[in-house]
Amino acid sequence: MKSYGAMAGRYLKQQRRKSILTIVGILLSVALISALGTMGQALKDNVILNAKYNDGSFYFGYTESSPDLYAKLEKHILVDQLGIYRKGGEIPLQDDYSITIDKTDKDGFRLLPIHLQDGRMPTAKDEIVVEQWILDRLPGTPKLNGVAELKDTDGTTRSYRIVGVLNNQQTSQTNGSSKAYAFSDSSDIALDSGTQLLLTLKPGVDINQQIESFKKLNPSFFTNDDLLIFMGESGDSRLNSTLMIIFSTLVGLVVLSTVAVIYNAFHIAVLERIRQFGLLRTIGASPGQIRSIVFREATVLSAIGVPLGLLVGWFGLWFTLSIMTQNGMKIMTMDSFELTFHWWIMGGSFIIGFAAVYLAAWLPARKASSVSPVEAVKGAGSIVRESFRHVRTPSLLSLMGIEGRMASNNIRRNRAKFRITTFSIVISVTLFVVFHYFTQQSLTMTTTTNENDRLAFQLLSNSSIEEDGSSPQLSDVVSDNVMRQLGELPGVYRVYGNYQKLNYQVLVPDEKLNKDYVQKTGNSFERINDRNTVYSDMYLYDTARLKEAAKYLQSGTVDPMKLAEGDGVILVQTVKPMTVDDKRELMPITRYKVGDKLTVMGEYSASPTARQLREVTVAGILKQSPFESPYQENTLVVIATKPTFAKLVTADSQSVYTKAYGTARLGLDIAIEDGANSGPIKQELEQIARTIPGSRLVDIAAEQKETRNYNLQMKIFVYSFLSIIGVIGSLNIINTVQTNLLLRRKEIGLLQAVGMTMGQIRRMASAEGVWFGVIGSFWGILLGLGLSYFLYKRLNYVRGFPFDFPWEASLIACGIAMLVGLLSVQTPLRRMAKANLLEELREEA
Amino acid sequence: MNVISVDGLSKSYGKGGTRVDALKDVSFSIKQGEFVAVVGASGSGKSTLLHMLGGLDRPTNGYVHIDGEDLYGLKEKERAVFRRRKIGFIFQSYNLIPVLNVEENIQLPLLLDHRQPDKVFVNDLIHTLGLQDRRKHLPSELSGGQQQRVAIGRALAYRPAIVLADEPTGNLDTRNGQEVIELLKLAVRQYHQTVVVITHDMNVAAEADRVLTLQDGLLISDSSSVGRSL
């Protein structure tokens, strides 16, 4: 041995098992931090990709251009890509269909959300890309690489080569008007108020800082909001700082819990040798020398643990994701997902890992160096001298008899140790509650889903109704039989009927109106019969739709039988209006409860008579709409079954449409299973469509797949995130509770010596473990709630919604904390049961 | 020449009603090469006195000079270095570092001072202590007597000004206890070392050149060996 510092290595070697445990602790913490970082980054990349997919990849643009503006932008040193886009006129085709040919240039094709299904983007002026569904309706029904002769809006006939086929869009199919894009450039497109300019800046340019100067160039300036927000480059600095605060809070929590894990590992290592450090002091080691021994240990442990942690984190994540994508979870087809390597994450995790180890070693090192040599000499055999304190209030544990009373005393007897142990559990529970809250919120923010996401096809019929009211009431366009047959096709999830929607008004008494809504939105309602007239969308749901509605049930029932009794309806009263401070906020518009009566006015009248009014009963309340848009802005959604809907229809005798459509099935919505082959289903539907005159098949299978995929990916991220957090937390609790017990090995030996059975000791230790879980959960949930509320307040700026108490997270965290507390005492107890009693008693620190 | 000089040394613990005066105005001096035993009943202040002589604790009043240096005029770090170089400790429970072998335990005070041990001296010491066959053994592989011999070796390794021993034979049987006392006496003779031993054992006290008796924190007698005076 050349220097006293070599003692650090000797200690580590001698206590090999403990050193390995500490290294594993460091390794896991670093692995988890780097995995979290990588996943967080992947999440961000995913959200950005999605924003680009939906809205295009340009940063900002001008709705009106001019040659001067174009010239300025083209020469601008910071501009990377500059696209020109001009909307085309509608070109009518046969059977009421049409096509609009928009023009854009090379950069425009890159910057706009144009999604190729097949082929390539146009590069010459006679080339065009069109939506797939319109191919059959174009003159000469051309295929890919075929030629279509189209009469332009100026009357000239031009022939276009179809070089690419685009994904079908729902809106264009519903409207019967396909989108098409042709290639053009600045020499050809008029740079006037009908032309848009879109641009990105060169890499590395601070987008946020440049927004103002680009805004000054032309008043028609606009930004690609979602993309910039997700890139953290929104022009709204408050929003950026909000996101920064949220991000830092989350990272801070993870780092804090890592420090706690490592701190505990070091703390036990130091506490067990505290007397030896004292002895070193008596033979003349200075406090600095003792600290240096502890820091040397920390260095050795982190030099092994941190790099290994980075490797394990990266490969662990890679392995997990590849298993997920290759095996059972093939349906999720995460083919667009790639794990990207980021130096900043690895470097950051490396630094955090080392910093956490040193931070964790600092307190124990200080403790070791400040050990009084006198105490070390005096306290022969005992590990630490504890300051006991009396507990005045009896604990619930006392009910468990002597073991419980001892457990209760053990927990409270040493304030410092009690604080360390509960702190670790508190931080774990807090971490879980906050992450659960945050991830759930971001999930609802980024993926507002309902059953609409599953719809792959729609069959629409187009019946002509005579304005004079002479049209007879329509019958179902598709029979129940066909519905059933379709539902049995492989890959079909469910088939829903489509019915007319009634735009009625509900007369809401003052006490049932949400005062908060009125105050926050500043909206006022027309008063009829001393009541408020609230606009309402009334839907007819068949049994298939009601089955889906059950998933969103808040209170009451969606059972068609029960709904039929006493004209029961289902309400969606949660709306998402714009508040006076220009913010979208979720809130109920009315405060109806199950059993309340609802007065509906069919035909508008300032003084309605019984003929125009219907009374129905609220039988169920849903959190959000199962179909259509999840939340309306200011409209109450009322869902009825056929008999009730039929009564509602008669409340409007004026509208010829309401009367003619009645309760007839006007079309179909078809939801398919994830990963199902949509081809055969489409063929079947096309056949049915041919038998219904004036019908139109809307194919949104590709779009649906994309949305479902994105939502599933987000869910995978969120739940992996939470699992990792759960693992960090559990590890921390295990470490702490075990430390607490292992430090008292000698004392437990003593208890055995005076006649306590191993069973009694196990009960005592288990009670301690669980009780620590209870106390830790209590404070953890409280703190987690506080932090969640803090995050909520920040997030609320981005999007308004009510604060939900995180019940689910709290219950899970509390359950896990108690279970882990209970389980983690079992291993050390088993080891103690096997150990020699005399050895334990004789053992010196 | 006085190696240790203690002047008006007092130490109290606690305050008010719970105040305990462990040492009350104790003064004495010890010459180089003396073998002194401190005796007294339990709670008489022996250990407190030893801690004060070793610079492990701070006195309430008074001075301790070791080798001419005012021990409590030194700062904490300086006192640690002083302890390392000038004072050797021997404890009842040996207090060896379990991860270091015999040779390394003996050399530890030198290593703490970033100094390379004098090989010849250490060898001589190991031979004198009869540990030549146990050089590479860990403390857990030694008997109690052997462990105490290692502790003596560690105390002598730096050739300190004084060696302080707290009940060095307390955990040993008569034969091993006698051996340890012989070794301490040998240190006085061979290395001209000053040794202060705290003990209950009147047989150990009988071997000393001088005996200090403490009672309730007061130095009640300072005489030449009990054995010799009889």
TrEMBL record, chain A:
InterPro entries: ABC3_permease_C (IPR003838), MacB_PCD (IPR025857), Macrolide_Exporter_MacB (IPR050250). Its main location: membrane. It is found in: Cell membrane. It comes from Cohnella lupini. GO terms for molecular function: transmembrane transporter activity. It is a multi-pass membrane protein. The keyword Membrane applies. Belongs to the ABC-4 integral membrane protein family. The lineage of its organism: Bacteria, Bacillati, Bacillota, Bacilli, Bacillales. This is Putative ABC transport system permease protein. GO terms for cellular component: plasma membrane. Residues 250-373, 720-836 form the ABC3 transporter permease C-terminal domain. It holds the Pfam family MacB_PCD. The chain crosses the membrane at residues 20-40, 243-266, 300-321, 341-363, 418-438, 716-737, 770-792, 807-825. Keywords: Cell membrane, Membrane, Transmembrane, Transmembrane helix. Residues 19-212 form the MacB-like periplasmic core domain. The keyword Mitochondrion does not apply.
From TrEMBL, chain B:
The keyword Nucleotide-binding applies. One of its GO terms (cellular component) is membrane protein complex. Gene3D superfamilies: P-loop containing nucleotide triphosphate hydrolases. Keywords: ATP-binding, Nucleotide-binding, Transport. It comes from the Bacteria. Residues 4-230 form the ABC transporter domain. One of its GO terms (molecular function) is ATP binding. SUPFAM superfamilies: P-loop containing nucleoside triphosphate hydrolases (SSF52540). This is Putative ABC transport system ATP-binding protein. It comes from Cohnella lupini.
